[in-house]
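Notebook entry, structure prediction.
Reason for the run: the old model in the group folder had no record of what sequence produced it. Starting over properly, with the input documented here first.
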Amino acid sequence: MNSSRVAIVILNWNGRKLLEQYLPSVIQYSQEDRVEIIVADNQSDDESISFLRENFPQVKILQLDQNYGFSKGYNLALQQIEATYYILLNSDVEVTPNWINPLIELMERDKTVAAVQPKVLSWHRKNEFEYAGAAGGFIDKLGYPFCRGRILNVVEKDEGQFDQVTNIFWATGACMAIRAEYFHQTGGFDADFWAHMEEIDLCWRLKNRGYKILFTPFSKVYHLGGGSLSYDNPKKLFLNFRNSLWLLYKNLPRHKFYKVIVVRMLLDGVAAFKLLSEGNVNGFTSVIRAHWAFYRSHQRIRHKREALKKIATPIWPDEVLCKSIIWKFYLEGKKTFREVEQ
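New structure, fully documented this time:
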């Protein structure tokens, strides 16, 4: 890494216990020159700020005046931080020695690289990939997101099968290094998303502008996962289903638009009734609420799509898997990335 300034930015909301457990590794392994650690706080009421001031005076604190969620919270924080590169890091991530340089060096070498993701492993099971990111994000032909090392809810063991630098579709918001110039150039995260899928939306917009997103195995972190919302939380289900439709509506190229949107809405209906058949009434309601929110926001999302088309033509990137992971997973029993891509 050269003299470029790097800001590690941790967005916090009532994460005092997580900061106590995971921040020491960030401080220990981020001692390079011109690296600054910043905690941007979404108006926590759990003594996060007093804890940081007392125990980690070397960490800069940036206080927001209310809880803006992940998307707008990061946008507002990063508007106030000058750096060449940002590393967006969840508060429940443990980092390892030399985790920064491999991320930054790839962007230093190639100006077309907008963002880089490390290998994300489970904090609980150190030899397994973690759900949120694993070895880099992709989408299938119907716009379902998945990762190398994680197909739907099945994660793989890390056996070195993804130990090469690779172009990916999206980098996880749990730990993403991104060029500050390009983050602001594309408008940052879509604040309406609040949380979940916003990093996929951002990466798709970056790809539409011709930039690359990379995965490197030479940087490794351990992610607890579910630090803010557990994976089966009704609010998380609502955000995932609503934001998935927003993501596709905003970014799909015209020749894919209608087919993908219609099929996804039908499959969402199948998913809703599957949840109901399992006795998960709150999950069923979350999917219905997500679709209702999508219908009500249609005009606003359409205006966003039109505005984005004036900047860059939506593309169907090479990193899209031209198969259905739903078909592969449920009907063919394919549970690993290599099985799915065959």
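Summary: The CA atoms of residues 12 and 41 lie 5 Å apart.
The old model has been moved to the deprecated folder.
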